[in-house]
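User: I'm writing a tutorial on reading structure tokens. Could you give me a worked example: one chain, its sequence, then its tokens, then a sentence or two explaining what the tokens reveal?
Assistant: Sure. Here is the example chain.
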Amino acid sequence: MLALKRTMNVVEAVLKQAGTTFPAQATVVSPAWIIDNREILYAHTADKREYKRWMDKRITNPSPVKNRQLFSAEALMEQTATVSVLRSEIYSPDEYDE
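And here are its predicted structure tokens:
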């Protein structure tokens, strides 16, 4: 849970730096396991017992995505990096002709 707390601190700092007041909420999602420690005051939990209900609530949410949500997502995405390489650049076809 320490990693979750650290991640929330980073997310809140990025959103604050971007000038948004969008509230960040931590959620621990574990569809295959049961979460025993439910005394996490700063995070919602959706474990094996509640996952279907939690997911149904998200799927049936009638609200469209709001401008503040998009702005906050963009601020978070600007702080990420993607490194991608085509598989053909990693493996040559000769390696498999043994």
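What the tokens reveal: Residues 2-96 form one domain. DSSP finds four helices and two strands in the chain.
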